[in-house]
């Protein structure tokens, strides 16, 4: 049973400090879920946190989908069977950079509705869906009081950010939300994040980069961090944000140092916005989020490993953290401070068998100076604190972890050309030894998307209709067509006066393409931007076609139901005489013919009149392409490299990979990143001058061994012959550990830190290397114990070097998935140079274990 009190969360009568990992089930496949949950648990998580995605579960009002990636019951049960708890954030508004913030678009069409305020139609629909989820969890016996993993629920989401937009109706809505949730009888606590006016029986929680100063609105509530942003999302044509590992660890340590009880990483695994699920507008398909587990489920090192060690250090302090009534604050310097937790073990349900002594003491020493290290004295001992760091002392004496000292390995991810399934040993050996790659296929077929009226469901009406009111978000695309008569006098007037007629639109979002007589005349991209687009007509009747496209619906802010898409205001043709196009007859057509025919699917793709594609026929706009390819060998995650394409969408075996776009980031704004000091999403960006995204995840479970169907719809022109299938893998791992570093925190237990009796003098630091599952260390590319210089992929020997370094590391690690080695003079056959602090730097290459075996033949 779950409960809460000041400072701590109580589960089954035991106070806990909980680490939570954010994983969104629809952003991965069910086949990926077990591995993601297992890696989260191995990384130190106690809890998995996820939103519930209303528009995924109820795409049509009253018709529910709980299958495949939407099988939330299966996901929750997997979490429970792994021994972890679950925090279920029902919302049902989620934001999450998810299309329309998780709201189904049909919700806009309910008469009189206003989202997220004291509005009867909205409250009725919201309550119906929330009750549906709560009842489902209860029926499946998934709440903690039923023996299931769910210990907390969430209602609403960051409503405090927009509440004032609704005035008194917003305040009334907050009260209604709380009473509605509590009235559902879930039997576990409810959370509202960023909601300072949450009611007495609802826990208000913090979201942000730093929440160490957060206090809930009652001292009867625990301090919860529901979203610790360990990265940020990316937009098409934007730089890639990264949050330094040291700063993230600093934020986590500070949160627990200052009384926090529950901390969730948003995200621990971000995953992929498959299909048209990305919000925005203009959010990319990848939701990697610089998380500890990358988009493909691989470990992002050193972030994953450094945080794992941090979690272990915090758990070593847990007996004192949960037993102390409050922390003792000690000022150590102008920007240095300590928080000390002491308690008798007989208090708060602890007993002597748990910790082996009569008292416990843990301390956090913080240096919040952004520039300078500091030497401090704490309980009679001296400690050196790096800038912007926290040292953790589980026994108030020995430092086992400092947030700024990263000893975990660094992993270098690569995208390597894949090899189709084959049992031919000569091909496999060639693949192992050759760096040559090949495109996904040399055989492509093509069909043009018609720039004309083709649908029986097209309709004609006077005036301009709002995009979403027509499409209901069933497609990104909406065609508007009208016919304009241009006289010889008009043409003469434009020529004589050097005037170009123009289509003028007061406001447009996200993408507009203008066609005259079937020819693309121009394009505009933006969010509610004014359009003035010159056009050219022929004498007589001209077909003017406007194509509006959404690139993810708005997912944040007040009044989402009013945001819409397509056009706002007047549409005019300007020149010698202005024509109000808004008042003409327009014919509307939803989507693409290829979409309507489902030519991307295995069952229906032959409906299109495909022809063979030759290199001379590209690039081409508004064109469908298809080919077949065999699945690559091994278990490494698979990605499509679409860097040769422009903008469009991709499907594999009928599964929608998502939107793609080779928008290029600005060439400026990327600079070396210093972890010290407060982080923001623009501080540590990379990828300047390159396309924001070029790799697109193809889950292994969507592939068959051979003859996989790849279908591409390309809008702007690209070269499909250069598309390739690549394997996303950790190709290189590096580690650099000094003999002055702390012994591995994983080697300690709580009983080692009682009354400050334990000494660390008899323990040595360790170097640890590990490849991904199914891979082994095939070679040691660099190893030096002494004074190595540089960093991963740029190591070099210093003046001091132990000759045995390379041979010892090769003997210890080669052919193994992981290896450990102590950092001491004795291990390397003596002191290579007296009087200096030595370090070991290693760079190793990881390869699939099968390839390693073949390479040895």
Can you name the CATH architecture of the largest domain?
Alpha-Beta Barrel
Mean pLDDT: 92
Output the CATH homologous superfamily of the largest domain: Glycosidases
Percentage of β-strand residues: 25-35%
Described by the principal axes of the CA atoms, the overall outline is globular
Bin the helical content.
Answer: 10-25%
Q: Do you know the CATH topology of the largest domain?
A: TIM Barrel
Radius of gyration over alpha carbons? 30 Å
The CATH class of the largest domain, by name, is Alpha Beta
Task: List low-pLDDT spans.
Answer: 346-357, 422-437
Largest sheet: 8 strands, parallel, barrel
Structural class: alpha+beta
Strand order of the largest sheet: 4-5-6-7-8-9-10-12
What is the number of helical segments per DSSP (H or I, 4+ residues)?
Answer: 14
Total of domains? 4
Number of strands: 42
Cα-to-Cα separation, first versus last residue = 58 Å
Features:
Jelly Rolls, TIM Barrel, 857 residues, alpha+beta
């Amino acid at each position: 049973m779950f409960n809460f009190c000041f400072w701590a969360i109580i589960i089954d009568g035991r106070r806990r400090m909980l680490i939570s990992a954010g994983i969104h089930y629809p952003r991965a496949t069910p086949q990926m879920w077990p591995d993601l949950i297992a890696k989260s648990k191995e990384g130190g998580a106690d809890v998995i946190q996820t939103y519930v995605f209303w528009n995924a579960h109820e795409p049509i009002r009253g018709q529910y989908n709980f299958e495949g990636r939407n099988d939330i019951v299966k996901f929750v049960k997997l979490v429970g069977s792994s021994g972890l708890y679950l925090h279920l954030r029902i919302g049902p508004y989620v934001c999450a950079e998810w299309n329309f913030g998780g709201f189904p678009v049909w919700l806009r069409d309910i008469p009189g509705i206003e989202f997220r305020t004291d509005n009867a139609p909205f409250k009725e629909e919201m309550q119906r869906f929330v009750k549906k989820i709560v009842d489902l969890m209860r029926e499946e016996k998934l709440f903690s009081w039923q023996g299931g993993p769910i210990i907390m629920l969430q209602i609403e989401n960051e409503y405090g950010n927009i509440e004032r937009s609704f005035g008194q109706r917003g305040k009334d809505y907050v009260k209604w939300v709380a009473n509605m949730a509590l009235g559902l009888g879930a039997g576990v606590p409810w959370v509202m994040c960023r909601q300072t006016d949450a009611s007495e029986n609802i826990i208000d929680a913090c979201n942000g980069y730093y929440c160490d100063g957060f206090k809930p609105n009652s001292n009867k509530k625990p301090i919860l961090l529901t979203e610790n942003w360990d990265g940020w999302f990316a937009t098409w044509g934007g730089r890639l944000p990264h949050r330094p590992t040291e700063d993230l660890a600093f934020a986590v340590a500070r949160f627990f140092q200052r009384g926090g009880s529950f901390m969730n990483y948003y995200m621990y695994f971000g995953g992929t916005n498959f299909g048209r699920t990305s919000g925005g507008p203009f959010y990319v398909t990848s939701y990697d989020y610089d998380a500890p587990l990358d988009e493909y489920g691989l470990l992002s090192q050193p972030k994953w490993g450094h945080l794992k060690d941090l979690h272990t250090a915090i758990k070593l302090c847990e007996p004192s953290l949960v037993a102390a009534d409050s922390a003792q604050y000690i000022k150590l310097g102008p920007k240095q401070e300590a928080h000390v937790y002491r308690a008798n073990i007989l208090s708060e349900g602890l007993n002597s068998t748990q910790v082996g002594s009569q008292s416990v003491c843990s301390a956090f020493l913080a240096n919040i100076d952004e520039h300078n290290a500091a030497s401090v004295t704490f309980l009679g001992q001296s400690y050196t604190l790096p800038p912007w760091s926290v040292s953790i002392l589980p026994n108030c004496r020995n430092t086992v972890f400092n947030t700024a000292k990263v000893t975990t390995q660094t992993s270098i991810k690569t995208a390597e050309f894949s090899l189709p399934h084959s049992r031919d040993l000569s091909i496999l050996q060639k693949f192992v030894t050759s760096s040559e790659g090949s495109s996904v296929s040399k055989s492509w077929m093509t069909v043009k998307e018609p720039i004309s009226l083709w649908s029986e469901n097209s309709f004609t009406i006077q005036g301009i209709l709002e995009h979403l009111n027509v499409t209901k978000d069933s497609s990104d695309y909406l065609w508007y067509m009208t016919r304009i008569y241009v006289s010889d006098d008009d043409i003469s007037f434009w020529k004589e006066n050097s005037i170009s007629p123009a289509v003028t639109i007061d406001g447009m979002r996200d993408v507009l393409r203008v066609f005259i007589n079937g020819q693309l005349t121009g394009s505009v991209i933006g969010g509610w931007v004014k359009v003035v687009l010159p056009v050219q007509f022929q004498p007589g009747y001209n077909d003017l076609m406007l194509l509006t496209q959404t690139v993810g619906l708005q997912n944040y802010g007040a009044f989402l139901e009013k945001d819409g898409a397509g056009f706002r205001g007047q549409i005019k043709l300007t020149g010698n005489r202005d024509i109000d196009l808004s008042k003409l007859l327009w014919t509307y057509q939803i989507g693409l013919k290829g979409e309507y025919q489902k030519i991307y699917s295995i069952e229906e793709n032959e409906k299109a009149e495909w022809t063979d594609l030759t290199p001379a026929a590209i690039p081409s706009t508004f064109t469908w392409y298809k080919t077949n390819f065999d699945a690559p060998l091994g278990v490494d995650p698979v990605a499509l490299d679409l860097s040769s394409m422009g903008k469009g969408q991709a499907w594999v075996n009928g599964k929608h990979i998502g939107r793609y776009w080779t928008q290029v980031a600005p060439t400026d704004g990327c600079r070396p990143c210093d972890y010290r000091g407060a982080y923001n999403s623009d501080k540590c960006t990379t990828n300047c001058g390159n396309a924001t995204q070029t790799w697109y995840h193809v889950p292994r479970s969507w592939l068959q061994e051979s003859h996989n169907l790849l279908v591409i719809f390309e809008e702007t022109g690209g070269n499909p012959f250069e598309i390739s299938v690549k394997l996303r893998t950790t190709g290189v791992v590096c580690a650099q550990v000094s003999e002055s570093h702390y012994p591995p925190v994983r080697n300690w237990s709580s009983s080692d830190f009682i009354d400050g009796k334990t000494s660390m003098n008899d323990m040595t630091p360790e170097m640890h290397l590990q490849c991904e599952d199914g891979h082994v260390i095939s070679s040691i590319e660099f190893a030096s114990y002494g004074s190595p210089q540089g960093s991963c992929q740029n190591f070099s020997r210093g003046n001091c070097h132990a000759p045995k370094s390379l041979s010892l590391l090769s003997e210890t690690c080669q052919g193994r998935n992981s290896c450990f080695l102590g950092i001491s003079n004795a291990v390397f056959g003596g002191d290579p140079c007296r009087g200096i602090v030595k370090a070991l730097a290693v760079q190793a290459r990881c390869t699939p274990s099968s390839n390693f075996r073949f390479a040895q033949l």
